[in-house]
Amino acid sequence: MQKNLNDIVIFFIIVSGVIVLLGGFVISLVILYRKRQKHFVEEMEQVKLAHANNLLQTKLEIQEQTFQHISREIHDNISLSLTLARLQLHIFDIKNEKLADEKLQLAGTLITKSITELNDISKSLDGNMIARQGLLAALEAEMELLQKTTCLKINFEVTGNPLFLESSSELVIFRIIQECFNNIIRHAGASHGSLLLHYDEKNLKIKITDNGKGFDIKKATTVSRSGLKNMEDRTRLLDGQMNIESRFENGSVFIFTIPMENKWKKEKQ
Amino acid sequence: MYARKQKTGIYFLGYLLFDLIILLTIFYLRSNTEVSNNSRYLFMDTSNHIIAVVEILAYYSYFFFLLWHNTKDSSFLYKKLFACLLSTYMIVLVLSLIFNWHKFFFLIDAFGFILLILPCLIYYKKYILNTESSIKLTQRPSFWIVTGVFFFSCMSLPFYLGEHFLSFSSKRQFNLLAPFFYYTPLALNYFSLSKAFLCKKILTT
After folding, report:
1. What does the mean pLDDT of chain A come to?
2. H-type helices in chain B, by residue range?
């Protein structure tokens, strides 16, 4: 009888011990998991915040670029045209009919040219162009503008099956391309450039080439806050890759590969 | 009802349904005085082991989906290893039923529970200690399923081992204790399974 009681007591102790251990094990797992989850959620918030900041920075830079362009256009072209038009009207002599006619026509042409240029500027002030008409339309307008205002001849081509991506992704891609061409205009001294966008099932491949003087890639990318570093950071923001090939006096090639996963909006109609 | 939309859910529902049928049959046999005690105990003994086989198959099919679905890395080796262990267990169990190895049933049962505990530990290491997720633990069906079977196996292991030892020295007391130690872990396991189904997510989340 005593042996039976001992058996039962031992049995109870063993099973209770197992239950307590199990309970403690699961509770400690839950506590550990919660700590890791909290840390993970905080990290995700920080990543989201950094992403939002980057996006805002991109928008501000595009805006700044637009304002600079407007300022240049107004100063270099519109102001000059209107000044010439005013000059023509100032020296206008109604007694000399033939000369007066010429001067009026010239003033009219100059004013028309200014109106056209102002219309173009107003289009570029449309900050929502990318959101409303998409990346390709915005790039077409940008390439047209660059060809008009600089000596660069640009060949723009789109291949594959274009897709509308999320506005935020398209904004970043637009800024990368814009920055790349800014660098070409400022530093490369190129006369010809090309922009090729290729859409395939998994990726968007962007290839930008120029026939400029080339540059030292290592030197350019190690300088902090350089344009190349910005482009690299933006490409990484989209989980993409940037490859550069450049040889002195032989131009440069920039290739950006952006994965399309989770970024597409709808198919282009 | 949500679980029936998934393969693993169907396996679990099949196991629960089978268990319910056996349980109802046992209740019927106990209430029916025409059935002899020997026949009743034989049926209960055999059905317990058959349920164990169905249960271990259901849980292992779940573990294969959850832990070892990738065929390209080391998880494939684990899958092979556990498949071998499972096959060994099944063969030994079938042989013991055929040749009536009553003396070794408790060891075979204990081995079966250890086979259930090991993948649970792998799950905890892989998904609780080494993975970060924003999903709450209590909203993950896999946590409920694995914790339920882990509790069930860990609590049943000393009971099945103790049964072999105690049943000879203190049968009356043991028969009073047995229902508690047998049905409580089972109830906890069923509760965990229900909780997992109620999460309304894919069972391997």
Report:
1. 82
2. 7-31, 37-66, 75-99, 105-123, 141-169, 171-198
